[in-house]
Every structure is written in structure tokens, then in C-alpha cells.
User: Fold this.
Amino acid sequence: MTSHITASLTAAAVAALLALQVHAQTTASMVDSHIAVAKAAAGTEHVALFEAICGPAPGSPPVGVGIHRVPGRATWHAEPVKVFDNLYYVGEKEDSAWAVVTTEGIIIIDTVWPYSVNDEIVGGLKKLGFDPGRIKYAIVSHAYIDHIGGARFLQDTYGTRIVMSAADWDFTEKSRGLLPAIKPKRDVVVADGDKLTLGDTTLSIHLTPGQTPGTISLLVPVKDGGRPHLVATWGGTSFNFELTPANFQTYIDSAVKYQDIVAKSGADVLLSNHTICDVSHTKLRAMASRKDRDPHPYVIGNDSVQRYVKVAEECARANLLRLAASGRSGSLK
Assistant:
């Protein structure tokens, strides 16, 4: 009797182990399938994005991460660059900031760090021949310090209106990773589908929560020698948030939604808030030597813009499966 029970228990344990192995193999196969789709979508244009986010997600940084010391200027400073007739790069070597110049003033997209905003955005605009006092709005794509860091300075110095979603205003006010002195005062709150018009330019605002609860992605009309183009900005890229199934699903849903927006809009330019992701570190140099009839390095076509967001979606799907297989949250590294 005892030997029969022992044999039965042993058989059950073996069966359970085999089931777990089969499940693990199935999950690994599904992860590989999403990685393969992401790699195919990346093609040759979006390899940097694929390599940056398709590995195991890092999860949230430790609480209290902020500016412990100001890095040397040589490590982050970049010169401003005219990219389109009405769009200028005023960001750092790694963290992007863009200036949309209109007939009634300037809209800044992302505000870099507290220590670099005066050098890059203010100084950059002056070098380009613009008055930083004409910065009317600053849109924060998502409320992490490398994008919101300079917002309070612009708000206090120039009366710039700071634009975020309600969810990211809440996120900012509750954040323990942002010092109170650099948190902007709650200002313009935008909702999904809102428009921001300044002078002759109207930006379309789309909420794409994921990297933060209220991440913003945009559509921005630009011109190159008078020829119209449409910029799409994917507002939040990395998986450096609390790793939960719900958060990954939110990210995935936003990516699917934004791909449809991009497809219907015909956007043919893709901008990121990190130079490595949209290869701005290479494209900005190419702008310096570009001749009038040369192809524009940032104009990549609507299919390529859609594929960029597809890479983000599929890498998120792969990491959601990794999270489920790990049975835990936090970091998948």
C-alpha cells in the first residue's frame, strides 16, 4: 500500500515537472516569436531601438534616484541644429529636446536636465538666432527627470506654460525621485486627442501611457524647403517602470493604438526623446553636410515610422511573457 502511494506521488511529481518544462519551452518559444517579429520590424533603420529594449526589462530605478552630481559639460553638451524649416534640435548628446518655431512663439518638446536646460535649450536657441523669451509652451513627453528636469526653470524664468497629461501631473507631484525644487507648478493639462495651436502650427496630442501613467506622443507638422512632412514622436520607450502584467499591457495597448494613429496620419518622420533610439546622433551630423537636393535623413516614410512603434510593441509583448514565466515583478535581469 505504502509503495503504491509512493509510486503514485512520484508519477504525479514527474508529470508536474514535465508539464512545467513543456510550459517553459512554450513560453520561451513565444518570447522568441515576438523577438523575431520585432527584429523583422526593425529592419536596418531601427536596430538601435531593438537592441535597447528587446532584452530583459530593467524595471523601476531605485527610489531616490536623481542628480547626485552634475556631470562634466563635455559628457552631455551638443550644439543646436536646424533639422526642418520650423524644427530645431536643442538637446544633449543622449537626451533630446526639440524646438518648434511658429509665427507666434516657440514650443519646446522635452526640457532635458535641470543642469543642462540653460545651456542646451536657452543657449541653443540664442545660437540659432531665436529669443528664448518667446518659449510659450514646453510639452513633457513623460515625467522622468531627463525630460521634465528643465521645466521648472523655463516656467520660472520665461513664464513658459508646462504641458502634461493629468496622470503625469499626478505622477510628478507624488514622485520621490524628483526634488521639490525642480517640480514645475501644475499648469496645462491635456487629454487624449487634444490640439495645441500656436500661430501657424497645430500639434496633435495623443496619450500613450506605458513608461509613465500619462506619457504623451505627438504629431507635429514640419516643412523642409517648404515641402510638408509630419513628425511622429513615440513619447515613452523604455521598460523602466514597475514591472507588472497590467503595466506591460498598458504599454502594448498604447503602441497598438499609436501605430494606427501613425498609419492614418501618414507621418513620415520619427523622433525619439533619446538620440540613440532615432539615431539622431548620426542624423544630426548628416544635417551639417546635407545639400539642398539631398534626401533628408529624418524623412523615413510612413511604413518605417509604423515599424518603429511595432518594435516597441513586440519587445513589450516578449517582456510580458518573460514576466509571467518568472512569476515575479521588479526586474527581469
